[in-house]
Amino acid sequence: MKSWVQSHLNVGLIVGVLFVVLTYLLVWQQAATTGGTRVVTTVAQWLVDKQLSEGEGSSEKVVTNGAQQIVDKQLIQAPSETEAVTTKVMCSTEERLSDYCELDGDVRIRGRAWSVDVVPPSWSSERRAWKIRPYSRRSATHVDTLNVTQLQGPGGAPACTVTYSKPAIIFALGGYSGNVFHDHADVLLPLFYLSRQYGREVQLLVINRVQPWWLGKYRLALRAMSRYDVVNLDGDTHVRCFRRVTVGLRLHKDFGIVPERVPGVRLAMPDFTRFLREAYGLPRGAAANPAREPRRRPRLMLIQRQPHRRFLNEREIVRAAEEAGFEVAVTELRIDAAVDEQAPLVNSFDAILGLHGAGMTNEVFLPPGGVLIQVVPLGKLDLMARVEYGEPATEMGLKYLCYNITVQESSLLETLGPDDPAITDPDSVHRRGWAALYDIYLTKQDVRLDIARFSLTLAEAMDHLRRQ
């Protein structure tokens, strides 16, 4: 009899405890949902509410000691438990230039693990995985790889420590970045047309173990793309959760925009150059017109490279440009120059003259209607010169003039001799690969322009400025 009574008492005690726990959970859930509050934890939400009510002096981020969950009152919030999550995963590794993923749903990023997980709301038999280097050119090396995985179900997924309300774009530095052409063509331009659809309400995340100076150099352009500081994922210990993430940057072509492929908004290259003028506060939105302002001589910037690919008769070139009607300034644009100092300098000119190379990228700062004169060295480099700088210049609204030098204008004729294959058969150098091409035609070659021949190009540039 005693054991029977004892067993009934134990059962009653268990039922009572379960009833109390169930009642607590129901009351807690109702308080969380009926108040219209998005809950991370009750403590975290209370801290955020407290900070928002305190106003100035409050911290931008809050960390709860227990769950180590962070809430950013501008950018970060927890999703409602009743909010429907639609999972959509699209990864491409077959386009000509770029690999990338477009992810919608419950996306969790672990920087230290180089992983991006898409967590489905329910179990599925399918698990898919991709290795994505989030640099815009697949050919680039020395870029870290992210493991993008669509999990089979929510079980085992890492718990969020930071939950964002805004979409995210993950990009990488390294590869070819650090060269001013690739900084713009590979990073800034695709970031521009990818982020524009969000109106600066987007979080940029970067993988950058090799160029810590890069974000500072282009800080004004990056700030014009996003209201929020760039998050460095290198060694990041948080699990950052988003509803939409783009992994990697998608190039339309080597340096340009295909308007029909821009997500959410129609853009073209004039929009990019206008964006840069606004980001750097550049005052000039139109080149000089000597027909309307006869007392004002259009300004021409002659970019003199060092130590190779130089103009050997610089003074004669300057004199010829002045005789054509230009005010000329010779400059050596330094690689380490601050962009917010260099951009206004370039914008003060109406034309740029230079030998093929990264310095031609400064065309992005010229006022619309200006002129880019690119001198192409010997070596069958005209296609590369046109694709990298000529076509973009035209799409930006500039007048592009290409001057292909003759054998007599190349220093290689003297240093190698007229019978060297580099002179007689440039294709043979191309077949030896990029290293040989770069060494011979872009490192060991200087140029002495035929002034009589080149004067025709200067006259064409001036004629354009008069007629625009």
TrEMBL record:
The UniProt record lists the Glycosyltransferase 61 catalytic domain at 287-372
Compartment(s): Golgi apparatus membrane
How this chain sits in the membrane, per its record, is:
Single-pass type II membrane protein
The residue ranges crossing the membrane are 9-28
Q: Which GO terms describe its cellular component?
A: Golgi membrane
What terms describe the molecular function in GO for this protein?
pentosyltransferase activity
Question: Which pathway, per its entry?
Answer: Glycan metabolism
Tagged with keyword Membrane: yes
Q: Could you tell me the keywords of this UniProt record?
A: Glycoprotein, Glycosyltransferase, Membrane, Transferase, Transmembrane, Transmembrane helix
Protein name per UniProt? Protein O-linked-mannose beta-1,4-N-acetylglucosaminyltransferase 2-like
Query: What organism does this protein naturally occur in?
Result: Panicum miliaceum (Proso millet)
